[in-house]
Structure formats: C-alpha cells, structure tokens
Amino acid sequence: MPPIRDIAVVAFAQSDHLRTTDELSEVEMLIPVLHAVLDQTGLKTSDIGFTCSGSTDYLAGRAFSFTMALDGVGAWPPISESHVEMDGAWALYEAWTKLLTGDADTALVYGYGKSSPGSVRDVLTRQLDPYYVAPLWPDSVALAALQAQALIDAGVTDEPVLAGVASRSRASAATNSHAQLRGSVAQGEYLVRPLRVGDCPPVGDGAAAVILAAGERARELCERPAWIRGIDHRIEAHGLGVRDLTDSPSTRLAAERAGAFERPVDTAELHAPFTSQEVVLRKALRLGQEVRVNPSGGALAANPIMAAGLIRIGEAAARVHRGESDRALAHATSGPCLQQNLVAVLEGDPR
After folding, report:
1. pLDDT of amino acid 64
2. Secondary structure of the chain as H, E, C letters
3. pLDDT digit string (tens) for 157-175?
C-alpha cells in the first residue's frame, strides 16, 4: 500500500563537529542544534507532535543516558517521545511511521554522540556476536580492513582508488563549515593494512536534528520541502563469515523497496565511514559517475557516532530545500562492515 500521507523533511541543523568537546555535556552540545532547527520553521517545542532521538549508552558509559538529553528538548509539560539505541536515521524512520498513522503532523528527530571520552574502536566491538567474535576483540578498523582487502583481492578496487575517494570527500568538505576535516588531508600511515589514516573517519563529537511535517503543514513550514518518497532498512547476517563483504544485498534491497531504482537520482549522501565502503555502496545502489556523491564530504569529513546517518538525510534534504537537487538518495548504516542499511529517497516539488 502507498503511504496515506506525504511526509517531508522541512528543516535540518547540525553542530560543528569537533575532535573533543570536553567542556560540554551531551545536553549542552545538543541545545543549540535544537534551537537552530526549530528557528528555521518558527515552531516551538510545544508545537511538535512527536519527538524521537537516537544515541547509545555505550558511548556515554551509563544506562538510560538519553533521558538526560531530554533536558534540551523540554519534557514538561509531558511530550510524546521515543528513543532508539541506533543512529538518528532510525529515529527518523520511527517518526516517519508515527506521522503516517495520523497521530501527529510534525516530528522532531535528533541524534548525538560524544566519541572523544573513550576508544571508539573498542566500544564498537560490543556490536559483535558475543560468543564467537566479540571475545577476540576485533576492532572496527580491523574489520573494515578485512572488507577492504576482500575488495582488493576480488579486483574491485585498489589503494589508489581508495585514496581518490578520501581526497574527493575532503575536498568537497571544504565548503562545509560543520565538517571536522576539510580540504587536503594526507593519507598517512597504515592503521590496519590496507587502510591508511586517510581511509578512516575522524573520531569526534557532534549532534544533528531534523523536523518532519506531513501534507500541507510541510508546505507551510518550508518553501521547498524534501518529500520522503520512499524509505526502508534491512539487515544482514550477524556472522561475518557467512557474508560476502564485497557486496551489500541489504542496501540493494532497501533501495529497491524505497523506490530508488525507479528513476535516477542526482545526489547521493552515503554513510560510508571508510573509503572501501563507498565502493561497495556505489555498486549496490547503482550510482553512476553522473551522480554527485557526498557533496558535504560525508562521514570521512565528520563521523559523529549516532548522528552521522541522520546527517546524510539532513544534508540530502538541505540540497533539495536550496534547489540544488531534485531527487536525492540518503543512506545510513550501522554495525560492522555495512551490516544494517537504511535508504531514503527525497524529492522536491517540480520547479
């Protein structure tokens, strides 16, 4: 069945993504972003019908840490609120389904993460199979290197191509004032072969927020809404040994269900924290050279854990808002080696 309501992203805001924000709590980092996204629409917190957030307690090191972030939203008088222990892109999916039901006309979605206090490479091992893989402590970079080496061994890519992905991404980020890494960045030494420093995302802190609105309410709040024409997410097997790391069938299926292959897109914001993952995603999403990929710089320029996927949707929507894109694809991922993937297709009204 087609959606019974048209739903759009009508506003997007993000923080400046920094290597460390020791002087700020999660709430203090989030509040300016929430104010900025509400100011774009003229809405107040009391005007929002549903609020949904994405974050992880593993970064904060304490249970139910997301409840503290509600201080930035304002939970009194009582609000309709939910949370996902995932990237904010999945919080957006939940908010989208909420608006489809007709229970709300507007939704505030945000994601945030402070990666600087600990070792992200070690924290992310908690995503792994707890019986056979996690006890070995293969960190996120080592697993990404396995995927990169599989692609090289299969003849799909090579190290100069990966270096080109890094160079293009960070050159594109030169015009992104929020990016953590901008302009020319050296590839540097190997972290885990065949991945060099430049093939990997920066560790940093950041937050992002979007506002969704349904039907005519979206047109009241935004001159050119970014309509969500399709959105879907799929997951692959937990065991890395039963997957083909050179391909991403879950991304392809999510894109198919979201309608991404029905007509060409002109822009794609891909959540590819490692250069080798962009190679996999381009193939799965059938993106040709005519598609502008990661004009914001992507996750190689700024990768705040639990917000980077939502930022991809926000960046794609912002280009639609500005008239720089008519049909954009946004992608978010979670888990090792592109285990779980979400794809959204955004369109603007005809010019």
Report:
1. 81
2. CCCCCCEEEEEEEECCCECCCCCCCHHHHHHHHHHHHHHHHCCCHHHCCEEEEECCHHHHCCCCCHHHHHHHHCCCCCCCEEEECCCHHHHHHHHHHHHHCCCCCEEEEEEEEECCCCCHHHHHHHHCCCCCCHHHCCCHHHHHHHHHHHHHHCCCCCHHHHHHHHHHHHHHHHHCCCCCCCCCCCCCCEEECCEEHHHCCCCCEEEEEEEEEEHHHHHHHCCCCEEEEEEEEEECCCCHHHCCCCCCHHHHHHHHHHCCCCCCCCEEECCCCCHHHHHHHHHHCCCCCCCEECCCCHHHCCCCCCCHHHHHHHHHHHHHHCCCCCEEEEEEEECCCCCEEEEEEEECCCC
3. 999 999 999 999 999 999 9
